[in-house]
Amino acid sequence: MRALTTQNIRLVSGLILLAFAATHFLNHAVGLFSLEAMDEVQEWRLAVTRSWPGMIVLAAALLGHAGLAFTNTIQRGSWRLPPWQLTQLITGFLIPLLLLPHIIETHVAHALFGVQDSYLYALGLMWPNAAWIQTALLLLVWIHGCVGLHYWLKYDEWYRLVQPLLIVLAVAVPMAALMGFVVSGRAVSALLADPAMAERMHQVTHWPSELDIKWLGLFQTSAQIAVAALLVAGATIIVFRHIAMLAAPKVAIAFTGGATVQAAVGPTLLEIISSNNLPDPSDCGGRARCGLCRVGVEQGADTLPPPDPAERAALARLGAADNVRLACQIRPVSALTVTRLVGGDAGGREPAAHLDAQGERRAVCLVHIRISAIATIVGDRLPSDVVFMMNEILGAIGAAVEGHAGRIDRFLGDGVLAVFGEQHGPDQGCREALQAIGAMDVAMDRVNEKIAAEIGRPVELAIGADIGEIVIGRLQMGRMVQVTVLGLLTERPARMAELAETKGWQLAISGDVARRAGSLDLDGAARETLADAEQGGDVDIIGVRRARDIAVDAGATPVAPA
Strand 526-530 vs strand 539-544: parallel, antiparallel, or unpaired? Predict the structure, then answer.
């Protein structure tokens, strides 16, 4: 049985609230058919949500979710947040300001003053003057819930399979709800234009009296003031807490092969990493889901409490060693020495999020980029000069790869191996690879403006690109964990890059890459055959002198083999 933790409580309460919101919004969507149908569906909903068990569950979920989120926020040790967490935070604090007045004018009005808060009453109250408020509330609730759901499920294999369907539903539900709201709102507004009908509606719904309306308005204002005061109190606590941490004694956190930072007691190790501008590969918001923040604790492990159930489950899933902990779950109270087990580069995040130790076979485009002037660059220069030049070159290559949906798989001493097609499939991957290679060619012009005079010649790239089925998996080599491609096919692009360098080309691509990429203008390109006994035959090679000259049609369809 899963242990009861604050994280599990937040998760379960959030799912309950999202289920309530989804059924409520679908009830709105019924307004596309008729107002009567909306009320009939609402009767079935209220039979559950207005029952004592339903009200207790909903109230507990609302208070529990909001309370734990508020507590988690004021205890946060770093405010360097990714966009999705910032979205969660902003929507989470805006929702109560709009939700509480809505609850008061419907549920509280029903409980205290006997109002029949049907859709007829609610729409008559809101349309058209307050329609924008309800529209904003609907969108805030839905965005908040969908973002949270996505970052909870994104590490599960089944979720990747059904994600396209869920995206359609995530867009369709609020659209249908808003359309139903508009259609029914206009229908009620037309009815109320008749004074006799308006009087009849007031009688049927037990419309609140002027005194009742004043009391409801007072309740709404009081609720908004209370929420605002709570937010101000939370902000004050956060400010004073951070001032206290600045003045508090510090503990030393040493990273093997890297920096040693001084940190106050209280924040998690992940928050310490983030607040010190160190690479942060985590992707689940500190929920012990992705496992990308794991570290090996070399010294000081005995000062840490044992893993809680969530951390224990994540480490067991990863097959982690006994000294491995999740940085998002540990709060250092004394000096620690840790080893980062997963790098902070963005290029490796997406595959690592879903691949396990078993790996998978996939057709991808592999691109080997060889730096022809590597010997000249290294030469007798100072190490700092060598590092500067290589960073300039590799920065240009990496930006081109990542800018076209590729991933740097490994550094090879005199170049890199890049992978394309993991995100968009092999055909689009071939097109993206050729676009990235063209972008590299152009980017190297700017690099050579900085370093060509220093080394006495321009830096040239020799590139080989091939496509085939390989194994992609997460390998653990000692303390290092990396997602990488495996198989003999990974050697062929390197041989093609050598051929390109020998022939004076910039790029050598296989015939399969050219066909997969679609219609390419290669009339002036050279043709060669590369013997490949290990893969069972010769490979047709197309040599291109300047990669920037290849025009790639992003919407092209693959060319059928002749």
Answer: antiparallel
* Residue 84: Cβ-neighbour burial (10 angstroms; 0-12, 13-18, 19+): middle
The identity of residue 316, as a single letter, is: A
- Type of residue at 68: L
What residues in the chain have per-residue pLDDT under 70?
Answer: 1-4, 257-258, 318-319, 342-359, 476-481, 519, 533-537, 554-562
Give per-residue pLDDT as tens, 170-205: 999 999 999 999 999 999 999 888 899 999 988 989
| pTM of the entire predicted model | 0.61
Selection from 279, 292, 297, 291 nearest residue 338 by Cα:
297
Tokens of 16: 């309950």
pLDDT of 224-273, one tens digit each? 999 999 999 999 998 998 888 888 788 999 887 667 888 888 888 998 88
E strand or H helix at 465:
strand 461-477
Structure tokens at 555: 């919407």
Interacting residues of 289 by C-beta distance below 8 A, sequence separation 6+ = 151, 152, 155, 314
Q: How far apart are alpha carbons 38 and 36 in whole angstroms?
A: 5
Residue 34 parent element (H or E): none
**Burial code of 242-261, b = ≥16 C-beta within 10 A, e = fewer?**
beebeeeeebebbbeeeeeb
Please calculate the CA angle 34-35-37 and round it to the nearest 5 degrees. 65
pLDDT at 230: 93
Write out the H or E segment, with its range, that includes residue 467.
Answer: strand 461-477
Please state, in angstroms and rounded to a whole number, the distance separating the CA atoms of residues 283 and 287: 9
Cβ–Cβ < 8 Å for 547, 507: yes
Residue 80 is which amino acid? R
User: Both ends of the chain: CA-CA distance in Å?
Assistant: 60
Distance CA 330, CA 296 (A): 12
Residue bearing tokens 């049609």 = 553
Query: What pLDDT, on a 0 to 100 scale, did the predictor assign at position 353?
Result: 41
pLDDT recorded at residue 350: 41
Residue whose pair of structure tokens reads 């550094």 in the numeric block: 411
Distance CA 437, CA 431 (A): 10
